[in-house]
Amino acid sequence: MELHEYLQIFRKRWTLIVLITLITTLSSAVVSFFVIKPTYKADISVIIGKPKTESSANQTNYNDVMMYQKLVKTYSQFAQSRTVAENVINKMNLTMKVETLQSMISVSPMGDTEFLTITVKSKDPKQAMDIANQLAKSLKEVSYNVNKSDNVQMLDNAQLPTRPASPKPLLNIAIAFFIGLMLSVGVVFIIEYLDNTVKSAEEIEKLVGLPVIGVIPNIKDFE
């Protein structure tokens, strides 16, 4: 097909393209604003390593730093363990299952540092903040009971989230618009591909390679 043929197809089927794109975009907007409940997340950071005193700060060497950076990965798994989750549930008197709480938690090391970021997602912003704060405390308590070493240092408290982390309606709408546009264009080309009828003299000349010497008019044109 040449460019002008593509333009003719779009011009002929523009209503279908607009309709499909509009339906997809509006559906995404309705789902994002009215169906999906917003989810909030609260973050809290802890430092993995022994508390720094004035004397120990001068004695800290490269091997100690590397050891604590490796411990960060270990404690990231520790923070998501069943034992820590059970401790949080007991301390906060939560009615949820351990598996439910674990699904709300994500832990990630901050690059090649001794920092560990704990993230809690919840439909309730205050619950997300409270669980994040307690999770850091439970990690400190449980790890001390297991390792007999105070390697988890509290840095600051989680803050009350003021904006939902998801959904992001504008982003969803933009994605739905482009998906709807691509889908509608695909549907139009499929319709054109399956349409075997000849609609003009130019199409006949193109198919048979011979000039058209006459056209029988539609009788409705003379009514």
TrEMBL record:
Top-level taxon of origin: Bacteria
Pfam families: GNVR, Wzz
InterPro entries assigned to the protein according to its UniProt record, in alphabetical order: Bact_polysacc_biosynth/exp (IPR050445), GNVR (IPR032807), LPS_length_determ_N (IPR003856)
Protein name: Capsular polysaccharide biosynthesis protein
Main subcellular location of this protein, as a coarse class: membrane
Domain Tyrosine-protein kinase G-rich, chain residue ranges per copy: 128-190
Transmembrane segments: 14-36, 170-191
Coiled coil: none
Organism: Clostridium omnivorum
Subcellular localization(s) per the UniProt record: Cell membrane
Annotated membrane topology: Multi-pass membrane protein
Polysaccharide chain length determinant N-terminal domain: residues covered: 2-91
Signal peptide residue numbers: none
Protein family (similarity comment): Belongs to the CpsC/CapA family.
Record keywords: Cell membrane, Membrane, Transmembrane, Transmembrane helix
